[in-house]
Design goal:
Helix content is about 30%, strand content about 25%. The protein contains 7 helices and 10 strands. Strands 1, 2, 3, 4, 5, 6, 7, 8, 9 and 10 form a 10-stranded mixed β-sheet that branches. It is globular and about 50 Å long. This is Nucleotide kinase. Pfam families: NTPase_1.
Length: about 230
């Protein structure tokens, strides 16, 4: 899937895609659980959805850098909110997400995640401005989620020259995790700032590192090439 970073350092954008309700966020969470270990620094947002009477009723945001969360949108009317489609977007949730999606320090971030990019962004709303800024600044590898029917439009709108499309209908979580980790490894090598001694692989598998844990404060962390077995 991932063919390497090109000579211009155009870092890949992994796009996890599928139909509506096809568990793109779940797939992304599983990938992050395998790739974002103790020493990988991640920024961005996850947006798990909520259901009511069999229909999508809203979304919560999770800031991957801090673990904080905030309600983003709901189908319940609220005069304070921005209205997009049938959803009312809370000002607190929008401000929370925009802070989490600010252009990262490329020397302190290994992976940027945006869940999800959809029709509201294509209309210039919600995260559209943040995506424009992310792609005009030096950035690490990124992972986006996008509905399949919007995929080509999103790639064209943001002029993504190095997309890696991952369709949840056919893709392997393990293989995707390995490809993302390879991209992160190459990004960190390019930064030439990794000074922490390599942690033995057995130290990783001896215990269960916290899911999505950030790097400890201090010296830049080392990153290991990870080995993945077949999915069980």
């Amino acid at each position: 899937m991932y063919s390497g970073v090109n000579a211009s350092r155009d870092e890949p954008v992994f796009i996890i895609t599928g139909g509506q309700g096809q568990c793109k966020t779940t797939f992304l969470h599983l990938v992050l659980g395998l790739t974002v270990g103790l020493h990988v620094r991640v920024r961005g947002v996850l947006a798990p959805g909520h259901m009511r009477d069999g229909r999508r009723s809203g979304f919560t945001l999770v800031d991957l850098a801090t673990g904080g969360h905030e309600e983003l949108s709901s189908i319940d009317p609220d005069p304070r909110c921005e209205v997009h489609g049938r959803f009312y977007f809370r000002p607190e949730g929008l401000a929370f997400g925009r802070r989490a999606l600010a252009p990262p320090d490329p020397y302190r971030t290994d992976l940027m995640v945006v869940d999800e990019v959809g029709r509201f962004e294509l209309q210039g709303a919600v995260w559209a401005e943040q995506l424009d800024r992310l792609l005009t600044h030096p950035h690490p590898p990124m992972v986006w989620t996008v509905r399949r029917r919007l995929l080509d439009t999103v790639v064209e709108r943001w002029k993504i020259t190095n997309p890696v499309v991952v369709d949840v209908g056919t893709a392997s979580v393990m293989a995707t995790a390995g490809d993302v980790m390879d991209a992160v490894w190459e990004w960190r090598e390019a930064q030439a700032i990794s000074t922490t001694p390599t942690v033995p692989f057995m130290d990783y598998i001896a215990g269960d590192p916290p899911l999505l844990a950030g790097a400890a404060a201090g010296a830049p962390p080392a990153i290991l090439r990870r080995c993945y077995g077949p999915e069980g």
